[in-house]
Design goal:
4-stranded antiparallel β-sheet; 18% strand; 40% helix; elongated; alpha+beta
Length: 307
């Protein structure tokens, strides 16, 4: 599937006409504001009735452009990107992944892929699951354990020590992310082979993503839809986002208990100050094990007096 979305604005009569046309492929029940969801030859067609005057149909997938232009020839000139909405774009059974820790100098990278059933979505909405960046850490810690117990997911944690080892072998940040997303998605898809809706919170384009999957012995997950800020569009990515953040916070707690120090997020001046204090307490070699050594924070430390 492609990451492009094509939107066709319609009136009520046209919306019903399109639904009738795709009737043999409709696989979802109706939801608030969602008139129908159909899946045809790798393309997801969704009809919306967000208000009395606003009605539209979106097309996403490998044949999205062809399907969209059947109803509106103007769709060939410029894909109309969906604006971020409070309502998710897909309410069907789905698998999606997200990551955390990419920009953190002292904390690990974690990728989570999760499976969400259509019947679970009202529960997620009630619990307030959405992009973890919009939830407080307190809220995530409150609901995280419940989510990890109720939902099926695959979690991959890359410690900074392992991260440094992989970087030294020629990997880069995005290649590591691609490999982790692929493996986590594969772990879920092999359990739910009938699921065709697979989403990734996009960090590189589709071509580059698959280019990074250069291990012949590693199975690749195909048919992925890549969407920037995917956690705002798909419940499976939103769930993965929250579980990843919850797991991330738990890893932070472990480090803080191990070293009896408060670990900062990110890679700003607070991380620099922490690193200097850490070196004085545990030594430079120990810092090398817990930090991402290709970050500027680390490189700057080697150029100045630490004591």
């Amino acid at each position: 599937m492609t990451n492009d979305f094509y939107t066709v604005k319609v009136n009520e009569q046209k919306l019903k006409e399109i639904r009738d046309f795709y009737a043999p492929f409709i696989s979802d029940k109706e939801h608030d504001y969602v008139f129908f969801v159909a899946k045809k030859d790798g393309t997801v067609i969704t009809g919306y009735t967000s208000s009395k005057t606003s009605k539209k149909v979106t097309f996403q997938g490998k044949n999205a452009l062809e399907e969209a232009t059947y109803w509106d020839k103007e769709a060939t000139t410029k894909p109309q990107k969906e604006k971020e909405e409070k309502k998710w774009l897909d309410y069907s059974d789905q698998i999606g992944s997200d990551e955390v820790g990419v920009g953190d100098f002292l904390l690990p990278m974690i990728v989570v892929a999760s499976f969400v059933k259509e019947s679970d979505i009202p529960y997620l909405i009630k619990l307030g699951v959405r992009d973890s960046k919009k939830l407080s850490d307190k809220k995530i810690l409150e609901i995280g354990e419940e989510l990890t117990t109720k939902f099926d997911y695959s979690k991959l944690t890359l410690t900074n020590e392992k991260y440094n080892e992989m970087i030294s072998k020629g990997e880069n940040l995005n290649s590591l992310k691609a490999k982790m997303h692929n493996r986590a998605l594969y772990n879920m898809h092999k359990k739910y082979e009938d699921v065709v809706a697979i989403y990734v919170d996009q960090f590189v384009n589709e071509k580059t993503y698959y280019k990074y999957l250069n291990d012949k012995d590693e199975p690749e997950v195909k048919g992925i839809a890549f969407k920037t800020q995917g956690e705002s569009y798909f419940p499976c990515v939103a769930l993965s986002s929250v579980i990843a953040r919850y797991s991330f916070l738990k890893e932070k707690e472990k480090l803080e208990q191990r070293y009896s120090m408060k670990f900062p997020f990110g890679a700003d001046i607070n991380a620099d100050k922490f690193a200097k204090k850490f070196i004085k307490k545990f030594g430079f070699d120990e810092l090398k094990k817990i930090s991402k050594n290709n970050f500027a924070n680390f490189k700057n430390l080697t150029k100045e007096e630490l004591f």
